[in-house]
Amino acid sequence: MRNRFLTQAKREYSPRQRLAALLVEAIFFMVIFPFALLLLGGLLDRWLGWSKLMQEPINALIGWLLIVGGWLFSMWSIYVQFTLGRGTPVPLMATQKLIIRPPYAYCRNPMSLGAIVLYLGVSAAASSPGAAVLVVLGAVALLTYIKLAEEKEMIARFGEEYLAYRRRVPFLIPRLRGGG
Questions:
Q1: Secondary structure element (H or E) that encloses residue 172, with its range
Q2: Of 107, 88, 113, 72, whose CA–CA distance to 179 is shortest?
């Protein structure tokens, strides 16, 4: 299975194919997932009797700042994957080269960081502690997957170049200095 995935990851796709994959992914992560997060978070809030996180308009202001910041960081990451790496976040359309330039010079998983911040913003804007709990649980699952599976795949694909990069660049919390 692993060799099959590595072979698939080496296949390069055209910009049109990568863009089509990104559009499908965008519908899921920008429409369906936030809707489900708010729906399930609201159900969890009601079931547990939790009250709103913050008072209006503080929740909206903080939420939208997080949403915009997380979205911009994620989009920057995806743009760099698409242009420099000639790939996408979709594992089957993996980048064709290791990206070590910003935002990947600040942390190894800027797209994940951006998504976590974005979804925490959605939770804050909706004042839903249940949604925030779901985001944290989802983040733990995602980061565990990245640590246990994706990093092994990166080592298999890029070898010592990735290991050196991993030694230099933090996993998730960015260093604001650096560059590449």
A1: none
A2: 107
Total residue count of the chain as it appears in this document: 180
* Under 8 Å between Cβ of 176 and 106: yes
> From the DSSP assignment, how many helices (H) and strands (E) are in the chain?
8, 0
First to last CA, the chain: 34
pLDDT in tens, 77-117: 999 999 999 988 887 788 889 999 999 999 999 999 999 99
Give dist(CA 73, CA 69) in Å, integer.
6
Q: What is the pLDDT of residue 10?
A: 73
Q: Omega before 57 cis (within 30°)?
A: yes
Domain 2-168 matching CATH 1.20.120: the answer reads yes
Asked if residues 122 and 69 have their Cβ atoms less than 8 Å apart, the reply is no
Q: What ranges do the domains of the chain cover?
A: 2-168
What gap in Å lies between CA 39 and CA 25, rounded to an integer? 20
CA dist 60 and 125 (Å) reads 4
Amino acid (1-letter code) at residue 94: A
